[in-house]
């Protein structure tokens, strides 16, 4: 080895340090890139799960509990006519009523019990805004008939939907706005 | 520090890229023409003018020194429930002015599988109504392609005076939106 190419021990150490620094820089850059990717993945997952409704159909007869209220769908029936005290209401042509017969057991006072009807294509309908005079109430308790925690409360929800979707229903969706999980969809026991 | 810088760079690139590839999607049509807005179909079925309006209650009465434009809009929701309008989703644009909806219906909602039809009211300056069009707009937080629909209301430079003349002394009867199932 010639004198000109000979390296002093300190030069070698300097080169090793330089190489080590470069590696460390690449490592840091890779870590930053990976962290950005993780951030984007988490954000897109969060945005995706909170932007579009998602549903998960439960086995027939299963209950779902949301905020201390356990919902059970007893039956889901369609009818062209709704009785309202002494009156009857005929569904307008091309539509049908769907009656969800439900039961809740709540751990809290004044539970919220509105549920939505779910069909394919993420279609949903809210229950009728007006109350009918029927055997079962369409609400969960009032001043005269409060819901008692721990005691079952039977009620029904009535929906007016296009008849074309009557055979394409998934069930009753029990939405938990505090959770990003898919909305649980109840179906009646077979 | 590096991570924050990287996030800013990535976000900047993202904004730049989406601006270049998307912009706004604007569809323009005319009265009686069906146009798609997101997953809904919208159509202006009628336009009326007046100087007063009367709703279903006594509180829903209003008289103007200008002109009231009543635009009947049909919204079809073949997929999921859809709402047109609201705070900033509907306006009439005319003569460089933007008019917000007022009265009983400032938005129209069609439930899934239904079509809803309702009157949207706008108080406008009768001297600047030529070329008026309805703007329907829907923007969502995640969307990179905000959609707008412009529907020309049939008011032109030539017939604007006739629309104004037809409005004088006329009270527009306005009901709540009606709905029907889609066939």
TrEMBL record, chain A:
Keywords: Membrane, Transmembrane, Transmembrane helix. The chain crosses the membrane at residues 25-46. This is DUF4352 domain-containing protein. It comes from Microlunatus endophyticus. The lineage of its organism: Bacteria, Bacillati, Actinomycetota, Actinomycetes, Propionibacteriales.
From TrEMBL, chain B:
It comes from the Bacteria. This is Uncharacterized protein. It comes from Microlunatus endophyticus.
């Amino acid at each position: 080895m010639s004198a000109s190419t000979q390296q002093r021990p300190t030069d070698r150490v300097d080169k090793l340090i330089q190489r080590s620094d470069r590696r460390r820089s690449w490592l840091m850059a890779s870590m930053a890139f990976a962290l950005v990717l993780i951030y984007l993945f988490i954000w897109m997952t969060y945005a995706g799960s909170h932007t579009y409704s998602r549903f998960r159909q439960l086995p027939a007869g299963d209950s779902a509990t949301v905020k201390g209220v356990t919902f059970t769908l007893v039956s889901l029936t369609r009818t062209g006519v709704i009785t309202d005290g002494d009156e009857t209401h005929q569904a307008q042509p091309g539509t049908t009523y769907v009656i969800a017969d439900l039961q809740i057991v709540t751990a809290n006072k004044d539970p919220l019990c509105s549920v939505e009807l779910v069909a394919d294509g993420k279609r949903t309908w809210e229950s009728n805004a007006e109350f009918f005079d029927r055997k079962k109430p369409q609400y969960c308790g009032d001043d005269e008939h409060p819901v008692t925690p721990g005691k079952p409360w039977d009620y029904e929800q009535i929906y007016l939907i296009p008849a074309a979707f009557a055979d394409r229903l998934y069930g009753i969706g029990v939405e938990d706005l505090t959770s990003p999980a898919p909305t649980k969809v109840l179906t009646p026991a077979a | 520090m590096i991570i924050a810088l990287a996030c800013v760079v990535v976000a900047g690139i993202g904004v730049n890229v989406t601006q270049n590839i998307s912009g706004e999607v604007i569809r323009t049509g005319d009265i009686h023409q069906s146009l798609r807005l997101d997953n809904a179909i919208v159509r202006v079925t009628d336009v009326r003018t007046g100087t007063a309006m009367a709703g279903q209650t006594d509180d829903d009465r209003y008289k103007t020194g200008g002109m009231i434009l009543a635009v009947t809009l049909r919204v079809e929701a073949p997929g999921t429930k859809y709402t047109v309008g609201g705070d900033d989703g509907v306006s009439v644009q005319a003569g460089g002015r933007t008019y917000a909806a007022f009265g009983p219906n400032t938005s129209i909602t069609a439930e899934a599988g239904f079509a809803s039809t309702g009157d949207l009211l706008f108080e406008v300056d009768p001297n600047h109504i030529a070329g008026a069009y309805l703007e329907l707009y829907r923007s969502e937080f995640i969307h990179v392609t905000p959609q707008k629909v412009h529907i020309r209301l049939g008011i032109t430079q030539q017939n604007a005076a006739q629309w104004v003349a037809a409005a004088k002394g006329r009270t527009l009867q306005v009901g709540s939106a009606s709905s029907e199932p889609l066939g």
